[in-house]
Amino acid sequence: MTSKIEGVYTKSAPAPLPQFSQAVKHNGMVYCSGNIGAIPGTNFELRETVKQRAASQTKEYQLDCHKLTRATQHQAIKNLEAILIASGSSLRNAVKVNIYLTDMSKFALVNEAYDEFFTCEPKPARTCVAVYELPLKTDVEIECTAFIDTDKEYMA
């Protein structure tokens, strides 16, 4: 292994701000920055498209937002997965996951989305923290640390 720190960048996930990398690799580990439900190549969140269609807080809009929260969480995890794959790792190699939520009433939805993507056993260690606000007014951000496995068959 090398002591060199290597930055990771993939077009399959939203571009990072200039102040940080999508991830860095060091000594067989990959450390991913926080990911939100932004659409790669646009940096717009899925929820913005729904908000633009809805003119008021109608019951229909609230139902859309419930579906949207799930879609936003899926996209955040897909972005994380794309970065891990570009790093030579995968979700199955995650050892620690941190999730930040602006609304803990969405905790069950987060768990549903999480369980769809993190299917291996043992599950990674995980922390879920309620925060007042997240960048770009998103409702969820997810980051993780994973090991880089050189056994390509395992990662398939």
Automatic annotation (TrEMBL):
- Source organism's superkingdom? Eukaryota
Q: Mind telling me which GO cellular component terms the entry cites? A: cytosol; mitochondrion
Question: InterPro entries this protein is in?
Answer: RutC-like_sf, YjgF/YER057c/UK114
Q: Which GO terms describe its molecular function?
A: deaminase activity
Q: What is this protein called?
A: Uncharacterized protein
